[in-house]
Amino acid sequence: MMEGLDDGPDFLSEEDRGLKAINVNLQSDAALQVDISDALSERDKVKFTVHTKSSLPNFKQNEFSVVRQHEEFIWLHDSFVENEDYAGYIIPPAPPRPDFDASREKLQKLGEGEGSMTKEEFTKMKQELEAEYLAIFKKTVAMHEVFLCRVAAHPILRRDLNFHVFLEYNQDLSVRGKNKKEKLEDFFKNMVKSADGVIVSGVKDVDDFFEHERTFLLEYHNRVKDASAKSDRMTRSHKSAADDYNRIGSSLYALGTQDSTDICKFFLKVSELFDKTRKIEARVSADEDLKLSDLLKYYLRESQAAKDLLYRRSRSLVDYENANKALDKARAKNKDVLQAETSQQLCCQKFEKISESAKQELIDFKTRRVAAFRKNLVELAELELKHAKGNLQLLQNCLAVLNGDT
Amino acid sequence: MAAEREPPPLGDGKPTDFEDLEDGEDLFTSTVSTLESSPSSPEPASLPAEDISANSNGPKPTEVVLDDDREDLFAEATEEVSLDSPEREPILSSEPSPAVTPVTPTTLIAPRIESKSMSAPVIFDRSREEVQENIEEEANGDIFDIEIGVSDPEKVGDGMNAYMAYRVTTKTSLSMFSKSEFSVKRRFSDFLGLHSKLASKYLHVGYIVPPAPEKSIVGMTKVKVGKEDSSSTEFVEKRRAALERYLQRTVKHPTLLQDPDLRQFLESSELPRAVNTQALSGAGILRMVNKAADAVNKMTIKMNESDAWFEEKQQQFENLDQQLRKLHVSVEALVCHRKELSANTAAFAKSAAMLGNSEDHTALSRALSQLAEVEEKIDQLHQEQAFADFYMFSELLSDYIRLIAAVKGVFDHRMKCWQKWEDAQITLLKKREAEAKMMVANKPDKIQQAKNEIREWEAKVQQGERDFEQISKTIRKEVGRFEKERVKDFKTVIIKYLESLVQTQQQLIKYWEAFLPEAKAIA
Q1: Domain, as residue range, for A62
Q2: Which of A134, B7, B407, B437 is 20 to 30 Å from A304 by CA-CA measure?
Q3: Which UniProt keywords apply (chain A) (predicted)?
């Protein structure tokens, strides 16, 4: 078990298996299976290889791959959001932008400071930073993959045309990132939306189910945000402490090699211990990050998507009520009645459609959430136990040797 | 009984006057071979303790026993046996084995001095030293018994004149103390006063006097002003622990233990206030000026190092100093991060509890609350670990950084001593030249004066040489003792520290094992 902890590949494979289904309970469906089989990091871009296996007749082949970049994922997500037909569904949250800046900066600083530290220290730190970079890379791959899998698993969204184009069209989609003007437009749109949201939420809902969901989601979203931030900070402190072990190990090693008394063996052994224990502590921190922080972050985004759904429903309800009022007015004035009737019917249909699917979506959301939390909490506890036991054994072995020597 | 056999004459006949020590020392200059390889006499005393190390936690075998102070008790195989030794022999031979009482360490922090009766000095056959060490030690184990505790800090007075008084408790079976258990109240400046007295007596002849804890104006001001927050309680605790370690190190030193000032400090209920320790007093300023002057002098003294041992050792200590400082910085960072981790874990625990509250799935809600509880317990664990990190590891390192500064100081004193000797030789030369001139000029009265001066300076040169050799010898012994101490100290403390890490992991396992079924129970 101990050796496994030291192996780079072992660490990777653990993540590989875990990441895909961390936060989402997905059924593999023979009809449509999507995954990201490969990814390449190029200076400031990440290229994902999206691999699809499908028995659906819509596709020309049964298995194919394309290369996509982050902006294209966002384009796909936005196209869902803007599509009126999907107003009644929780749109799977878009994956966050790959952010290697911090890691890259650290690697650069390390390169600059190469002269000031010993060769061992430099190699150690380089390995550390490379592992960090790799971890971030794997995470971003996983998050993009989860997005696609969610879409593929959704009975309605999976049939979306844009989605098929995304999966199949093997040339560049020519989706450029939003330029400044568009970003500004988006910003204003969001402001309007949140203002509207406030107005709309004032409308009391007839339906108990939705009323309950609304209050629940609001509170839940805020608390998940808080928990996610705190969990992040906790994991980072853990990592800093682990890094300190690294430096302590190096110092002890230096002491051990330079000391003339018989304590040098002692120091060397303790230095070795710190090195090994540090690997475990780093892994604890990484696992906490994965199982706890990432989970919370994901549900932060999902709960936001659920809130968005409720907003759309309330919006349509308000529209419906307004249409009703307009109809009454038209009937009273006996003017444009047909027009008012049609518009009212449309609003009514829209509202009912949304309400129906929203209910199911929210129920599904709860099921998914509970399952994801359960899976992750269980895995978290198991991993913490595994690492604590590993740590304990290391320490006890070391103590046995040290006590035997003295 | 150890106490009975404690030779009172030791105290009487050997006051800790420096001159007497020196004389006693001289009797054995021939027998004291260059003991570079085997460290000073205390070593053998420590060996049986190391054998017994299994049965007590981190025994602190005292090397203090066998000290040059008691050189008169050594039944040397040489003719220069001290007059006293025949008296001692019957006492010495009856001690079959060291009665080692394992002292239970009361705190993780304080290294405890293992009790050994001080009475039976070691019949130390120096000439067959290496071979006989173990055997002789077992046969004549000197047992040293004194335990010091510093506790119960309490604030006395108000406002800026307030100070913290600490209770210093001594438990001992040494008969040089009037009682076997007693305690006194001391304040911080008393400790500093003690150190300055000991330093002025012993440092310049080569003894490594343990340095006192550092002053802290900021820390003390907070306490004086009466801020009852955690940082001032931490400060007081840090100081208390440091004072305890300081006293323990001091009494472990066999020469210093004999000092009447130390005894007075431990015993007498009233102590004259040591005002010279204030930073801004006249004495304080004088100290600062002297320090500066010393630093300049050090740069100008070019010593002809005839003994490679000293050069080597100085270099070693320089390296050690650097390494320890580096390690200390890393450990301090660890303490800081661990405290941060504890705080962040606590914050997360609260947040998770809130999340659990708002979660409407009952089983998940319960699991989240459980998670919050686990994290809260873990935060406590981290805090305790941070304390251990600090009080065991970090403070050990900072103590040794200061001790090494004291060691370096002792080496510097040796240089000064050499300088003095050199100067005396130069002056003697000048006086001889002057005499020769007088001889030529034929001025009888001046000649007589010149001859007197020559005699005077010849004596000074001799004295200078003796002093220099004395200090060199003392330093060698002290360094040997110090190295032994250091090795033991580090080993003990680091093992204790690792044990604290073990405990933390065991607790972690307990907590997570309790949580796991809760998580699995989410339906």
Answers
A1: 21-171
A2: A134
A3: Protein transport, Transport
